[in-house]
């Protein structure tokens, strides 16, 4: 589905089975630059390369969706749950993300709000690149490779987020200057051997993201918990 009209609303439908070309940004729902103030809400978006692609649409809103990406493939061949490119003021709120590459990926944007989302079985829950003046609040990441990654992005507010049992890092900051990091929690725990294989190597060995995630969750119930407040 392609959304082009300003103020358009896509609500209460199921979208599945997009193409598989990263080059052409094949998506379940593709929001064009002309679709200012578009709203994508209360949808079930499954088995697409990219779930929702906000391609330059200012003030677009993506909320209350259940987004399940590709999981019988390598992470490098999957897209993101929501991609935001050059969409000032766009908001991604109260969605559930599972499988695919990154839950939310934003690049070359500003003044975005990502709040109240839940992420599992991904590479990064939230991945920030060259995007300034955003707010990332009250999100929950569990069982991902990295919870929250912020790179070359300035003046962010990162507040009251949780990373629980993410494999490599709870939060990663690289050249994130002038930002406020408040009230976040990183909760660790022992990981099974399967969880230390890369996603691509698991796929090469015939282990899907889904199977690896199930094994990790089963072992985590017995593991001690370590918590860090940021």
Structure description:
- This protein is mainly beta.
- The protein has helices at 199-204, 209-220, and strands at residues 2-3, 9-11, 14-16, 27-31, 39-41, 44-48, 50-55, 61-63, 66-69, 82-85, 91-93, 96-98, 102-107, 113-115, 118-120, 124-129, 135-137, 140-142, 146-151, 157-159, 162-164, 169-174, 180-182, 185-189, 225-229.
- The relative contact order is 0.11.
- The model is unreliable at 201-207 and 219-223 (pLDDT under 50).
Which descriptors apply to this entry?
230 residues; mainly beta; nine-stranded mixed β-sheet; eight-stranded parallel β-sheet; 8% helix; 43% strand; globular
- Described by the principal axes of the CA atoms, the overall outline is globular
**Residue share in helices?**
under 10%
Beta strands, count: 25
Radius of gyration: 17 Å
> Could you tell me the mean pLDDT?
89
What's the order of the H and E elements?
A: EEEEEEEEEEEEEEEEEEEEEEEEHHE
Flag low-confidence runs: 201-207, 219-223
Main structural class: mainly beta
Main sheet summary: 9 strands, mixed
How do the strands and helices of this protein lay out in sequence?
Blueprint: E1 2-3, E2 9-11, E3 14-16, E4 27-31, E5 39-41, E6 44-48, E7 50-55, E8 61-63, E9 66-69, E10 82-85, E11 91-93, E12 96-98, E13 102-107, E14 113-115, E15 118-120, E16 124-129, E17 135-137, E18 140-142, E19 146-151, E20 157-159, E21 162-164, E22 169-174, E23 180-182, E24 185-189, H1 199-204, H2 209-220, E25 225-229
Parallel strand pairs: 1-4, 2-5, 3-6, 4-7, 5-8, 6-9, 7-10, 8-11, 9-12, 10-13, 11-14, 12-15, 13-16, 14-17, 15-18, 16-19, 17-20, 18-21, 19-22, 20-23, 21-24
Antiparallel strand pairs: 24-25
């Amino acid at each position: 589905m392609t959304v082009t009209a300003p103020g358009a609303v896509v609500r209460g439908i199921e979208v599945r089975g997009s193409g598989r070309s990263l080059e052409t940004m094949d998506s379940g729902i593709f929001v064009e630059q002309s679709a200012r103030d578009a709203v994508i809400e209360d949808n079930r978006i499954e088995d697409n390369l990219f779930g929702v692609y906000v391609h330059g649409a200012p003030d677009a809103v993506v909320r209350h969706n259940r987004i399940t990406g590709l999981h019988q493939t390598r992470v490098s061949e999957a897209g993101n749950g929501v991609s935001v490119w050059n969409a000032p003021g766009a908001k991604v709120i109260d969605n559930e993300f599972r499988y695919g590459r990154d839950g939310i990926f934003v690049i070359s944007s500003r003044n975005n709000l990502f709040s109240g989302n839940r992420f599992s079985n991904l590479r990064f829950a939230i991945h920030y690149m060259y995007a300034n003046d955003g707010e990332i609040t009250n999100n929950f990441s569990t069982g991902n490779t990295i919870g929250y990654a912020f790179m070359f992005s300035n003046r962010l507010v990162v507040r009251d987020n949780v990373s629980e049992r993410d494999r490599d890092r709870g939060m990663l900051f690289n050249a994130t200057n002038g930002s406020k990091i408040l009230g976040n929690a990183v909760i660790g725990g022992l990981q099974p051997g399967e969880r230390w294989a890369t996603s691509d190597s698991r796929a090469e060995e015939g282990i899907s993201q889904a199977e690896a995630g199930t094994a990790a969750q089963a072992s985590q119930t017995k593991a001690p918990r370590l918590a860090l407040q940021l």
